[in-house]
Amino acid sequence: xxxxxxxxxxxxxxxxxxxxxxxxxxxxxxxxxxxxxxxxxxxxxxxxxxxxxxxxxxxxxxxxxxxxxxxxxxxxxxxxxxxxxxxxxxxxxxxxxxxxxxxxxxxxxxxxxxxxxxxxxxxxxxxxxxxxxxxxxxxxxxxxxxxxxxxxxxxxxxxxxxxxxxxxxxxxxxxxxxxxxxxxxxxxxxxxxxxxxxxxxxxxxxxxxxxxxxxxxxxxxxxxxxxxxxxxxxxxxxxxxxxxxxxxxxxxxxxxxxxxxxxxxxxxxxxxxxxxxxxxxxxxxxxxxxxxxxxxxxxxxxxxxxxxxxxxxxx
Length: 315
Prior knowledge:
Largest sheet: 7 strands, mixed
Oligomer: single chain
Distance between the termini: 53 Å
Low-confidence stretches: none
Order of helices and strands: HHHHEEEEHHEHEHHEEEEEEE
Strand order of the largest sheet: 5-13-10-6-9-8-7
Radius of gyration: 24 Å
Number of strands: 13
Mean pLDDT: 89
């Protein structure tokens, strides 16, 4: 058994075992039991020269998760919290008023926090199913590609939902109480980003991400002020659209899933949260005469402090 297959088998098994809705019974019956009779996992064992079906489960999980990571820009846009609960209550502190020690606290002290509830109400699935003839005859790298595509579709959906969350914030709730119009209509400049950064800072937050469409990234690369403020670091992954930091302390996250005429500057530690109830999970699946896997994901999204976001429009 290869180390990779062993490690990912353990990751998959541990994810199933710690899920209160699944557990030991589901691992043995739904995963191991169904994988034994699944032609995709039999083909995987043959192609990778594996000795048991648990290793095949680990190998397919490996393929799917590594592929999804290449699309995972959405997770860079938001605070991600693992949870086993269907709902999480967040306590957000409010600014109070200091009082003189000699006077003592006021007789009626207001609450210094407000609450926001976020529910786990997003659940998606995507299948990679094949006929038995397909599984027997088609080159295995083609089959692997379909499995990778399934997990990438889920990751893309997560990113799309996160983008929609930010784009859905009312303009009056944004940092500064309004949207920021680009200095030059149809073009994003460094000066626009500085104005948005200033708005978030004035609201009391520290923006760490600028969510930018590829069209606007092209504008920035033609702006000398941006180029001179920009440097690459250890967290850069150009192939995924994660660019280096500026000297103002925020990174550029490029995604074509956001509106081409809007840019958001976000303090991702304060603005919103993603409750990850079940990360991408791969399990054996059969539908009529087809066999393969189904990929699922379950999460919740919600805003926490909407004024930790600034929006540039008409850029």
